What does this fold into?
Amino acid sequence: MEKMTLARALRYKKRVVETIRNLESDVQTNNSVVAGSERETDVRTALKQRDAWVKHLVDLKLAIQEATRPIQRLVLEMAETKSEIAFWNRVDTTNGPQKDRWGGTNTEIKMEAALRKSDKDECLKKLQERIDSLQTRIDDHNASTQVNVASPQLP
It folds into this structure.
């Protein structure tokens, strides 16, 4: 059993997922080969190792989930704030005379935006400041919270 910060556990989880993907690739690539040719990987061993790493990943995710429970609201709020930024980035603020880009003619039309670019920019700035604040609080929690991580039980 190893004790590590939540921040380190999150980085470690990415490496575990990569290990699983590599083992899966080895199994998929080396399972069926030309008769008589040598396999680069013992497929059965790789499959057993993959199963052990998947079990380890489930345990690791559970430990991470338990450690993030106190900041779950912050994590969810950050996700929704990012969605709101995506929404605002899609709001068209075209205003004033424009070439008719919808009707295919070469006439000029006058567009009128209820929300102007300055409104959009101000909103985006506040949302980004909110994300920065949330991220700082999440980072502080991740750096100060300890997680117990068991070693994978490899065959």
In short: Helices lie at 6-30, 43-68, 72-89, 117-144.
